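Why should sequence recovery work at all? Because a backbone constrains its sequence more than one might expect. Tight turns favour small or flexible residues, buried strands favour hydrophobic ones, and helices have their own preferences. The token representation captures these environments compactly. In the example below, the structure is given first.
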């Protein structure tokens, strides 16, 4: 995985050197999304015109591997280029490692993230959406190499309790009373 990230960033660096400009790019990472669930990958069921256009005008990565079937470990792999076990974000019998609110665990700030690598190349970085790599300040995106963050620090759909779901900008909670009953009836 680390070698794949190194190759991608090397290619981006070579491309940028040839073009005299750094390419802009957006990484879209979704939980529970099947390969052909969106238009660029063949969906006939869901219209995704903006994603279709981005794919036509940009680059589609079509050969990839998810390191885990749940969000926290797979997100840690995307951010670090490491297997989840290497960064202590793995699934095992004693520790599911899908982080719940107020978990004392998170992606260790000493791990090098893709955002930190991009910053050394002069990129501005932002994470938008569900983070799910730890909700304490040390683990949040702005302390993991991202210049800005807007989103929710975790999901509230992994257990059957009403969990407050804060909306966060950088490290500031904008709204904290968001709750959703996730009980299936």
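From this structural description, the recovered sequence reads:
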């Amino acid at each position: 995985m680390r070698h794949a990230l190194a190759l991608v960033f090397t290619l981006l660096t070579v491309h940028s050197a040839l073009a005299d400009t750094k390419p802009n790019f957006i990484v879209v990472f979704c939980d529970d999304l099947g390969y052909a669930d969106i238009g660029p990958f063949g969906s006939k069921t869901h219209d995704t015109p903006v994603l279709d256009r981005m794919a036509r005008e940009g680059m589609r990565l079509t050969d990839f591997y998810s390191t885990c079937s749940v969000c926290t470990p797979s997100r840690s792999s995307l951010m670090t280029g490491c297997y989840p076990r290497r960064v202590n974000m793995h699934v095992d019998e004693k520790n599911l490692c899908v982080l719940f609110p107020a978990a004392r665990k998170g992606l260790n700030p000493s791990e090098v993230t893709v955002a930190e690598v991009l910053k050394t190349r002069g990129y501005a970085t932002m994470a938008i959406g569900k983070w799910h790599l730890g909700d304490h300040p040390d683990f949040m995106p702005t302390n993991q190499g991202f210049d800005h963050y807007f989103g929710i620090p975790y999901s509230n759909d992994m257990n059957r309790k009403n969990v407050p779901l804060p909306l966060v900008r950088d490290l500031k909670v904008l709204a904290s009373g968001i709750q959703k009953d996730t009980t299936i009836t």
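A few observations help interpret the result. The chain has four helices and four strands.
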